[in-house]
Amino acid sequence: MSWVSKRQITPALSTGEAEYQALAAAAREVQWLKHLRADLGLPCKLVTIRCDASVSLSWCADYKHEPRAKHIDIIHHYVKDLVLSKRLGTVKVHTSLQVADTFTKPLTADVFWSMNGMLGLVDVKELKPPSK
Hints:
The protein has five helices and two strands; from the N terminus they run H-E-H-H-E-H-H. It is mostly helical.
């Protein structure tokens, strides 16, 4: 698992564009991790990014030029190249099942603990000490 938080390198004019930029940043991180694994002798096959942003996914998968995206900096279209060349997979996930929200959004306690359960995380207060 890898997680990072930083400012976007170019300003976004819409939410869809911001999500596309974030998807492109995630794709660059995935490629770096794939190369690291290969250097360690642990090559991996196709990695799939789970995304809840329909606009971003459509910009990645669409072969035709998207007029609404013509102003987006070329660096962000790297993810589109990876998807079209089958070096990266993307899949739509419903927002209610997006476990990454645990790290990025304020959530109610019920949703937070539900998503932590999906990640396999537990509340340390519920753990019983080992018996002797």
